[in-house]
Amino acid sequence: MPYVRRDATGEIESVHRAAGRDAMEYMDGSAPEICRFFEQSAAVPSVADAHLTLVVDSAIDVLVAKGVLSIEELSPDARAAWVLHKELKGRQERDHYTASGFVEIIDDSKFGSLGG
């Protein structure tokens, strides 16, 4: 390990444990290019990661709602991360719906039944 596959510009596109049809070039695991590739890959969450986060988030909500898991049982760091996650998620949901600026309550009780 590792064998790399490069894109058309010569940048590492993927890293593999074994040589394959598209990954024939062997590089030392401590090579700066390999380290940079893994640092960049870790910094960019994939679509699959986003979907898995949704599943884990929902599963934890269900476990907490059913009393199977108490957030207080988590480590202080995990608790802080969970609270921050929920706060950011709530903010994101609130920001999705913004006030229109048009607010008026109409009292139509004095008209009685209009259906006749």
Q: Can you put this structure into words, describing what you see?
A:
The chain has 116 residues and is mostly helical. Helix content is 45%, strand content 9%. A hairpin with a 5-residue loop joins strand 1 and strand 2. The model has no long low-confidence stretch (mean pLDDT 80). It folds into 2 domains: 41 residues, no CATH class; 50 residues, no CATH class. It is elongated and about 80 Å long. The chain contains 3 helices and 3 strands. It has a 3-stranded antiparallel beta sheet, covered by helices on one side.
List the helices and strands and how they pair.
Layout: E1 3-6, E2 12-16, E3 25-26, H1 32-43, H2 47-65, H3 76-96
Antiparallel strand pairs: 1-2, 1-3
Summarize the entry for a quick read.
The chain is built from 3 helices and 3 strands. It has 116 residues and is mainly alpha-helical. It folds into 2 domains: 3-43, no CATH class; 47-96, no CATH class.
